[in-house]
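# nightly structure sweep
# worker-07 picked up a monomer target from the shared queue
# config: single-sequence mode, recycle default, output format = structure tokens
# input follows
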Amino acid sequence: MPKKVDHQERRTLIADALMRVAADQGLEAVSLRHVATEAGVSAGMVQHYFRTKDEMMAFALSVVRERSQVRVTEAIARLGVDPSPRLLLRTMIAALLPLDEGTRDDGRVALAFLAYTAVRPAAAPSLREGTRQLTGFIAGVLPDGHGDAAAAGLLALMEGLGVYLLGGQYTAEQALDALDAHLDLLFG
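# output follows
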């Protein structure tokens, strides 16, 4: 009887290996061979699930997005019913920032993917759609008079804080203080 294979589980195993390679060594180290070695599988198996580096990167980014969405959903659920818009945004952004070791690897992969798409724009369509949706959500939560431009600014602040956290220029406390100061400007 043929062995039953869980294809999603194998793709996730490979994507997790890709994320470890990218987080530890940078995207330039990501190759089918390096990912296969990290995952403990053959290069042929990696190629079976991902024909190109772009496909591997897109899948790894989707895994990061799923993890981020779980963190955001759990953090917002802890707020209870009907949190204030300011608290909702602060909680959501704090859950997305790489504030601890557990979220730094995801942050490194996300940052590496952003850099990757800067030189490979064809790999970026899913990022554009996700950014559009997030900007729209934030704009809908901000006080009247603040629209897409303010939402884009808040998103840019989040990305910048993430880069500073990953680079060690800011501590978690400094990043959250900067976020709070910006939210104070928006919410008065």
